[in-house]
Amino acid sequence: MTAGFRSALFYQDPKAALAWLEKAFGFELSMLLEDAQGNLVHSQMAFGNGYVMIGQEWSADHKSPRSVGGKNTQTVSIEIESDIDAHFERAKAAGAVIDAAPETQFYGDRTYRCRDPEGHIWTVSQTVKTVSREEAEAASGLKITGWL
Fold first, then answer.
1. pLDDT score, position 33
2. Among 9, 36, 56, 109, which residue has the least CB neighbours within 10 Å?
C-alpha cells in the first residue's frame, strides 16, 4: 500500500449508499465487513487508484448529512479521465441532486457538483485543458502560489 489520503463517509443506510455509488459513479465494492446479523460494519468502494470507506453512523460525531440538517464538513472529489458530461448524466439519472452542472473552470478542469441521496457533496472533475499558473492567475484574478 502506498501513502495517501482516504475519506470515510457515514450513512443512515450504508448498504443503500453502496448500491447508489455503484449506479451513479461506477464505484466498485472492494471490501465488505458484516456482523452476524448482516449489518454493515465497514466497506470500501474503489475507483481508479483510490477508494472511499462507507460506514454506518456510529457516534454523535459520525453522522450522515441527513441526520444533521444537510450540513457537510467536507466534499469528496472524483477525478475522471474522460467524458464528464456522460458521467454527469449517469449521476443525474441515478437521482443525484445537482448543485452545479458541468462547467470548465479557469484552471483547466471541467467540473460538476452533486449530492447523493443522504446529502454528501461530491465534486467530479476532468482535466480538459492544460493551463499554466500565469494563465490561471490572469483568468481568475487570484495570486497562485504553487502549481501542479
1. 96
2. 36
